[in-house]
Structure formats: structure tokens, C-alpha cells
Amino acid sequence: MKKITLFAVACAVAVPLLASSAYAQFAKPEAAINYRQSAMTLMASHFGRMQPVFKGQAPYDAAAIKANVAVLQTIAALPWAAFGTGTQKDSNAKPDVWTDAAGFKAAQDKFSTAMTQLVAAADAGDLDKLRAASGDVGSACKGCHDKFQVKK
Ligand code: HEC
After folding, report:
1. Does the C-beta of 149 come closer than 6 Å to ligand 1?
2. Which one of 68, 87, 122, 124 is most buried, by most CB atoms within 10 A?
3. Tens of pLDDT, residues 82-125
4. Is 3 a domain residue?
5. What is the CATH number of the domain that holds 135?
6. 117: Cβ below 6 Å to ligand 1?
7. Does 106 fall in a domain?
């Protein structure tokens, strides 16, 4: 009984707090921007570090690639929730992220599909498939940036 009461109190406090913030998970728009840019930076690091292997400039260590792809897959799920309304100002996201929400979602889906293929290729330990899937992932990054990221 006591637990239930505490839970009810917690909800009564938490719900208005969530509803009043610009975007539920983040206290301020700057926090959301910082979060998604950080996730993108980490994606670039974990994607970029595999390229020498795919280009044949470094030896293929199947276990190391598999572990790195798993990290990349985890990070790849993170940025999207941080593109809430009211978080465009002072970022490099184009207004199209919000005015063309369906297009932005489609670009995420394309990326997600390519990531699924990359994970499958890493699990299979198949370097040719990894190369192909990595190419698709790279195109999905670029495809989205061309449409939705401000060029500096
Ligand atoms: C569905 C769209 C989309 C996909 C897919 C995507 N990005 Fe981004 N990316 C963006 C947007 C939009 C920004 C600008 C974010 C901002 O400034 O708030 C961005 C910013 C970045 C930045 C700059 C971060 C900073 O510090 O300002 C890097 C680096 C980056 N992306 C790398 C990648 C890589 C690497 C991939 C693929 C593995 C990728 N992105 C996939 C949309 C995308």
C-alpha cells in the first residue's frame, strides 16, 4: 500500500515536469543538441575506424569488427530521440528535419536497414558483405546529411 502511494506521488510530480519541458528527456534544447551531436561524433568514430580494414589497409580481425559494430549499432539508435521540436536553433540541423518529418524518418529507416546488414555481415564474419554493407551505411549517413544537415 505504501509503495503504491509513493508511486502515485512520484507520478503526480513527474508528469507535469515532463510535460512542461521543451522535450521530455532533456532539460533544455541545448542539452538535446549536445546529446545528438555527441552521438553523431561517436558514430563517426566507430564507423571511421573500420574503414582501413574494409579498404584492405589493415588486417581483418573478425572479433574486433564484430565488437565495434555492436557498439556502433547501440550508438546509432541514440540521436533520433534528441530531435524534438524547438531544438533547431544554434544547431546544424536544417529546418527540414521538422518540416519534412516523414523524409527525415525515411532517412533514419534507410540508415537502420543498412546497419542491420552491417551487423549481419559482422556476425557472419564475411568481409565482402561487410564492405558492401559499410558502403550502404556510408551512403545513408551522407544521404541524410545532404538533405538535413547544414553544410559548414
Ligand atoms: C537520418 C539522418 C542522419 C543520419 C542517418 C546520420 N546523420 Fe549525422 N547528422 C544528422 C544531422 C541532422 C546532423 C546535425 C545535428 C545538429 O547539429 O544538431 C548530423 C551531424 C553529424 C555530425 C556532426 C556532429 C557535431 O558535433 O556537430 C557528424 C560527425 C555526423 N553527423 C556523422 C554521422 C555518421 C558517421 C553517420 C552514419 C554512420 C550519420 N551521421 C548518420 C543527420 C544524420
Report:
1. yes
2. 122
3. 999 999 999 999 999 999 999 999 999 999 999 999 999 999 99
4. no
5. 1.20.120.10
6. no
7. yes
Domain for residue 62, yes or no?
Answer: yes
- The SS3 assignment for 144 reads helix
Q: Which uninterrupted H or E stretch holds 111?
A: helix 101-124
Taking the centre of ligand 1 as the mean of its atom positions, its distance from the CA of residue 147, in whole angstroms, is: 11
Whether residue 36 has its Cβ less than 6 Å from ligand 1: yes
pLDDT at residue 33 is higher than 90: yes
Q: Which atom of ligand 1 is nearest to the CA of 115?
A: 38
Query: Residue whose CA is closest, atom 7 of ligand 1?
Result: 141
The answer to pTM > 0.85 is yes
CA 131, 113, 84 angle in degrees (round to 5)?
125
Question: Which residue range is the domain that position 50 belongs to?
Answer: 26-148
d(CA 21, CA 14): 11
**Is residue 21 included in any domain, yes or no?**
no
- Residue 37 CB–ligand 1 contact under 6 Å: yes
Total of domains in the chain? 1
| Helices and strands in the chain, H and E counts | 7, 0
Could you tell me if the CB of 91 is within 6 A of ligand 1? Answer: yes
Res 8 pLDDT > 80: no
